[in-house]
């Protein structure tokens, strides 16, 4: 299982980042920080997608995702919370297939 993020500017998906893969865990913990430059986040949304890594030639499975409007967050403070996951295909028109 891994997390993939993008900054989104309208219909454009920019600045992809990805965590390492956590295997054999029903409750994965990444303990990683994915950083974006502050100049890149204004006026953009952050897409966060959870993927399950498949074996061999099988396509990775999108487990769900969330989209955050970064202009609504107070970026000078740490924000902790739970966000509902929606189906990957509802997060935009970009081909969100993994990797």
Automatic annotation (TrEMBL):
Supply the SUPFAM superfamilies for this chain.
C2 domain (Calcium/lipid-binding domain, CaLB)
Keyword Ion transport present in the record's keywords: the answer is no
The protein's predominant localisation is: other
Q: Give the UniProt subcellular location, in the record's own words.
A: Synapse
Q: Which UniProt keywords apply?
A: Synapse
Molecular function terms, GO-annotated? small GTPase binding; transmembrane transporter binding
* Matches recorded under InterPro entries: C2_dom, C2_domain_sf, Rim-like
Query: Is the RNA-binding keyword given for this protein?
Result: no
The record's PANTHER family line, in alphabetical order, gives:
FIFE, ISOFORM D, REGULATING SYNAPTIC MEMBRANE EXOCYTOSIS PROTEIN
Q: What is this protein called?
A: C2 domain-containing protein
For this protein's source organism, the top of the classification is: Eukaryota, Metazoa, Ecdysozoa, Arthropoda, Hexapoda
